[in-house]
Every structure is written in structure tokens, then in C-alpha cells.
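Project standup — Tuesday

K.O.: blocked on the structure for the chain from last sprint. Re-posting the sequence here as requested.
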Amino acid sequence: MKQQGVIWALLTEEVYIKDFVGYLDKSGERVVSVYRRYESSVGEIGALVETQNRVYVVEVKMKAEFKNVDELISKAKAVSEEYKDKSVSPGIDWC
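H.V.: unblocked you, prediction finished:
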């Protein structure tokens, strides 16, 4: 049963990231790179989506918890240290 949950979570994340990249393309932001399960100095990030001017720190969660928001902010701060020349935008999606 746990394995099914992991598979469901990975599929959900994949669909969300693909839709998000499509949205960015349609809105005129050229996506340069997508890094899944990106390792930052403060832990793993679901996905890092890099455009010409911005980096999106994306987490997709099955359960909504307040601590997820705090973790996302910490991860976004760590990414902003790595990408000093770009604006960093955190985003979280609960499904």
C-alpha cells in the first residue's frame, strides 16, 4: 500500500511540473532547465524550474501542513544564494 502512495505522489508531481512548465511557456517565460529532486544545502526540493530571469522552487504535497511552508521558504532562501543573478519564487501545490 505504501508503494502505491509513493507512485501516486511521483505521478502527481510529474503532471504538476509538466503543467507548470507549459503555463510558463504560454505566458512567455522561456524555460531553460528543470531539475527534479534538486539537492539544496537545506534538503531536497521537489523541482527547480529555471527560466531566463527567474528560478521557481516547487514542492508538490499530498497533505497540507504549516511546516511545509516554512521548509519551502528556507529552501527558496538557499536557492537564492546559489542563483544570485535571478529572482527566486517559491511555490507549493497541495493535491
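K.O.: great, moving the ticket to review. The chain has one domain: 2-94. The domain at 2-94 is CATH 3.40.1350.10 (Trna Endonuclease; Chain: A, domain 1).
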